[in-house]
# Entry
Amino acid sequence: MTLIDVENTTEPLELEKFTLLAKDEYPCCIIGFQLKNSYDQERIQIKAKYQANDVLHFLPTAKITPVCFRGIKLKLKARFKGLVSSLSKLNTSLNEDINLDKYKKIISDYNLTCEECYLYLRRGVYPIDGKCLSQISEYKHTLEELYTDAFNMKDVPLFQAYSSFTIFILCDETIF
# Structure
């Protein structure tokens, strides 16, 4: 087991290792992590049995901005189709930020929260607390199982490998 070099926080991600979501894959729901730098890319490893994906998502904004995620794709329960529609209508201007209170209201109507992850909120990326996993998806593993078993610590020490699971609903709506 080797420590991951923390100097890698200044190094960019290796984008060629990510898969671009196809138009027909949207909206996409993932439980996992937003990767911001090479350090995250090296340290957060999920065991193969969980079939994690490295996903490249472009924010639907005037300026092309890539955002990278590592996580497990989820199928949303049917009752959340209205949520996705509401999220895509949340913000109608390219020049204004998404209102956090409006966002919290929309997801609270579905008994979901974002108390631990609201900082990830932006157009096209809608975060939901990992504890909502069983509400939003019929994924076969529980959040407790993921925290207990999903991190690959064979090559990375626990204190570097561990991170907080977040559910991300990724949308590609554009407003022009």
